TrEMBL record, chain A:
The keyword Transmembrane helix does not apply. It holds the Pfam family nos_propeller. It comes from Pontibacter akesuensis. GO terms for molecular function: copper ion binding. GO terms for cellular component: cell envelope. Transmembrane segments: none annotated. Coiled coil: none annotated. Residues 1-25 form the signal peptide. This is Nitrous oxide reductase apoprotein. PROSITE patterns: COX2, PROKAR_LIPOPROTEIN. Keywords: Copper, Metal-binding, Signal.
UniProtKB/TrEMBL annotation, chain B:
It comes from Pontibacter akesuensis. It comes from the Bacteria. The chain crosses the membrane at residues 7-28, 80-98, 105-126, 166-185. Keywords: Membrane, Transmembrane, Transmembrane helix. The lineage of its organism: Bacteria, Pseudomonadati, Bacteroidota, Cytophagia, Cytophagales. This is Copper chaperone NosL.
Length: 679, 202
């Protein structure tokens, strides 16, 4: 009986969904055949050739997809959709020991301690003259507010900075057009204690005590190193997404907000009451000027700044103790609010820098603001009141047009550089192409299913590469072979070079991508590091010749400085280790050849392996718990004799008389392959 | 010898200088897993590769078959050869100044002889490396030796080895050709040459 009720319930739910879909279709006035499970109807006949990259050939573009809740970035080739690499950023990565080995642990340190996970949302490429320059990728950690920098020479995370006075670092990280700043805004407002932390207050005090912050991170022109220059403390809304201007608007950055109602509870209702929230416009150049001129105040803070040294491969943490801040009420002309219909999500500025598209996820139309009108409204003081001393501009004075009936649930928009915009419609599961000339819808294509972000390579720059579009879908359902309750999310590659969009390819993505960036391969590939030069390895425990390896005891610590080369470790027989010793394996990979990393793993270690790149040194910590013989071996297939690349550690009971000893081969000296390494 | 012949002879002597700017010989190795190839460059005074770590990678590969590692220090020739080349250059320039035809012939023949000795030495060297294998080597192919070709290509297990003279050898070639040309062209200038010599003597 109960199952019958359940069945009825399920059926009822399905019916409601169907009705909603039908309503959606009617609402948009498009033909019913385009809706529903149309599968491959939209796939053009030449799709296979359009995405085919022959074996041995390279893709046209790199794309960097955020991993969302896996804390990583995945790198895909476009148009093939081939996965090229996974870059761990905020997450421990057992595959190569990131966050497990002694060198990289400091990268994940925060004021809350070691936080080996985060929710990585938005990758943004560094810029020169408004265009992606292929040097670095900035990404945000949403949960424990952090901004990281990935070096595109090595595809490794080289810097992670914690953001104080922030909670839910969501509208982040947005580089200005010449990489002067990377901006990071808070998603959640919190009661700041003005000492870098949050206050212990009642949630009923939300309206009075909660504030948000926008952080201005300065970027070193040459090396990319970040530094938190100052923050702006903003009203206690939720700040959702951000985007910078370009051309005429390049001094400005825009943030969408929701919960201007300042509700602390059940936000799905509480934050959806106002018909209009705001688009916050900040003149970042003026803000930097105010900060430089001494308008900024200083407060105590406590945040971590972690950097990986390129030559030693050792990450170091610094704890920063102060932060400067500006208050908008003290800085006239720095910040304005533009009313934007109902809980807007994405804010996207077109390639000319004139139009700001505000994707109101609960609104029925898509408003487009004009930068020139905004300037005029500021000049004429077309204000509609103010919030915390920040003028609110009149909606009608800044509006260029509203795109009518664009679809249901617009989330994000990108541009093709030919005067067209493409918006994802989450609820109606489609991408809609519309024109910036007449604001009319030109084409629509169903995507599977429920798209969040979309990406046109360079679609947020002055000159988009208007050939492809990648749409990142939240739900996969029947697109791939079923894999139990959890399915890979799906990305879809769409040809946007012609009048009509053409579906080319589905490919699975890792975790849940929120936004992506694409760049021409020739801007990144030629700079790729093939191996680290052994001569430049400054790791204090590096051993550059097999003649110099050592095993030394210092109290209960045993330090093993060893080397790996095809196809052996030196030493490969180690004795004299005792139960409970802290053993540090400092392994230097002596190879100077591309694609020859060596791995190191030892039986029973309460740790991961570590993967050592050619010319680098990595350290694995091991505390043996029982006496016996422990094999170690290379985990990355390195040569015809890879299986033989192994060794043993003898562990004796605590207090044993076995002396420290080590060897490789029965007769010293050194095995043949090494001599040329010594200097 | 006419002034033009002397200039040619001067060029013959100086062209040996190319040996200091370019490798004499290059050995190219190609294998499926080395699509970019490995190049061993043999100079008059050193051994190098197409990039700085090539020698190490050569040695890593060679150790599988038990070949001795290759180092510049292993070859006494590399210490002697620069002096030999400098000697020939100085002698060539001196001959150009003296303008004595017969000596040009001797110089050329001596240079040819030195070149032949060099090539023979190089062959012995390849032979030694290709056959003097460690009996404990992990990879042993019965009857197989690994002597790279002196000139041309040869398949060595998975490697396609190609051996060719480098631009440095062009110096030796130029020196011989130019000096030969001087000897040939100056055959009718004996008289004027003797007159010239008198002039010089006066």
């Amino acid at each position: 009986m109960e199952t019958l009720i359940n069945k009825l319930k399920a059926a009822a739910l399905k019916m409601t969904l169907l009705m909603a879909l039908a309503a959606g279709a009617a609402f948009q006035g498009c033909s019913g055949t385009e809706q529903g499970n149309s599968k491959d109807e939209a796939v053009s006949a030449d799709a296979a050739t359009a995405v085919y990259v022959a074996p041995g050939e390279h893709d046209e573009l790199y794309s960097f997809l955020s991993g969302g809740f896996n804390g990583q970035v995945s790198v895909y080739g476009i148009p093939s959709g081939r996965l090229l690499k996974i870059i761990p950023v905020f997450t421990q990565f057992a595959e190569n020991g990131y966050g497990y080995n002694e060198e990289s642990k400091a990268m994940l340190m925060t004021s809350h301690g070691f936080v080996p996970w985060d929710d990585l949302h938005h990758p943004k490429l560094s810029r020169a003259d408004g265009m992606a320059d292929g040097r670095w990728l900035f990404v945000n950690g949403n949960n424990t507010p952090r901004v990281a920098r990935v070096d595109l020479k090595t595809f490794e995370t080289v810097e992670i900075m914690e953001i104080p006075n922030s909670a839910g670092n969501h509208c982040s990280p947005y580089p200005t057009n010449n990489n002067e700043y990377v901006l990071a805004g808070t998603r959640f407002s919190v009661p700041l204690d003005m000492k870098g932390g949050t206050q212990d207050v009642s949630l009923n005090d939300y309206k009075d005590k909660f504030r948000g912050s926008i952080s201005f991170i300065k970027v070193d022109k040459e090396h990319g190193d970040m530094e938190l220059d100052f923050q702006i403390l903003v009203p206690g809304f939720d700040y959702d997404l951000a985007n910078g201007g370009k051309g005429p608007s390049e001094d400005w950055v825009f943030f969408t907000t929701y919960n201007t109602e300042k509700s602390a509870t059940l936000k799905e209702l509480g934050a959806s009451q106002n018909d209009r929230d705001y688009l916050a416009a900040i003149n970042w150049k003026l803000a930097a000027k105010y900060a430089a001129e001494g308008k900024a105040k200083e407060m105590p803070a406590n945040y971590y700044h972690n950097k990986m040294d390129h030559n030693s491969h050792i990450a170091k943490s610094t704890v920063k103790k102060t932060v400067r801040y500006l208050l908008p009420e003290d800085c006239p002309g720095m910040m304005y609010l533009l009313p934007a219909p109902k809980s807007p999500h994405g804010i996207d500025v077109d390639p000319t820098g004139e139009y700001m598209v505000v994707n109101g996820k609960l609104a029925s139309s898509l408003p487009v603001f004009a930068f020139s009108k905004m300037q005029k409204a500021i000049k004429n003081k077309d204000f509609d009141g103010e919030v915390n001393g920040i003028p609110v501009l009149k909606y009608e004075s800044v509006l260029a047009a509203e795109v009518k009936e664009p679809g249901l649930g617009p989330l994000h928009t990108e541009f093709d550089g030919k005067g067209n915009a493409y918006s994802t419609m989450f609820v109606s599961s489609e991408v809609v192409k519309w024109s910036l000339k007449d604001f009319q819808v030109k084409d629509r294509m169903p995507v599977y299913y429920s798209p969040g972000h979309l990406m046109i390579p360079g679609g947020d720059t002055r000159e988009p590469y208007g050939k492809y579009m990648v749409v990142m879908n939240k739900i996969t359902k029947d697109r791939f072979l079923p894999t139990g309750p959890e399915l890979m999310h799906s990305a879809q590659l769409i040809d946007i070079s012609g009048e009509k969009m053409k579906m080319l390819l589905d490919f699975p993505t890792v975790a849940e991508p929120h936004y992506a960036q694409g760049i021409r391969a020739d801007l990144v590939a030629p700079n790729s590091v093939k191996f680290f030069k052994l001569d430049e390895n400054t790791h204090p425990e590096a051993v550059k010749s097999e003649k110099d390896v050592s095993v030394t005891r210092n109290g209960r610590n045993v330090k093993i400085n060893m080397t790996s080369i095809r196809s052996h470790f030196t030493p490969d027989n180690i004795e004299g280790v005792q139960v409970g010793d802290t053993v540090l394996f400092h392994v230097t990979n002596l190879e100077q050849d591309w694609d020859v990393p060596h791995g190191f793993a030892i039986m029973g270690a309460n740790n991961a392996e570590t993967l050592i790149m050619p010319g680098a040194t990595q350290t694995l910590k091991w505390v043996p718990q029982q006496a016996g013989i422990y094999p170690f071996y290379c985990t990355d297939f390195c040569s015809a004799l890879h299986q033989e690349m192994q060794g043993y550690v003898r562990v004796s009971p605590r207090g044993s008389k076995v002396p420290i000893s080590f060897s490789t081969g029965e007769k010293k000296p050194v095995p043949p392959a090494t001599a040329s390494v010594s200097k | 010898m006419k002034t033009s012949h002397k200039v040619l002879m001067l060029l013959a002597g100086l062209s040996l200088g190319l040996l200091f700017f370019f490798p004499m010989w290059k050995i190219y190795l190609n294998a499926p897993q080395y699509p970019e190839g490995l190049e061993l460059h043999i100079w008059v005074n050193k051994i190098s590769g197409s990039s700085e770590s090539v020698l190490q990678n050569f040695n890593i590969l060679n150790h599988y078959i038990g070949m001795e590692p290759i180092h510049a220090e292993s070859f006494a020739e590399l210490k002697i050869m620069p002096y030999v080349v400098v000697f020939f250059m100085v002698a060539g320039v001196t001959l150009a100044l003296l303008g004595r035809r017969r000596l040009v012939l001797y110089w050329t023949m001596l240079l040819l002889l030195a070149g032949a000795v060099g090539l023979f030495d190089f062959y012995m060297w390849l032979h030694k490396f290709g056959t003097n294998l460690n009996p404990e080597a992990p990879i042993k192919v019965p009857g197989m030796t690994y002597i790279p070709p002196l000139l041309g290509s040869k398949q060595l297990l998975n490697f396609d080895a190609l051996s060719l003279p480098g631009w440095g050898s062009l110096g030796v070639f130029l020196a011989v050709v130019l000096a030969g040309l001087v000897y040939f062209l100056s055959r009718n200038t004996n008289k004027t040459a003797s007159i010239n010599r008198k002039n010089v003597l006066v």
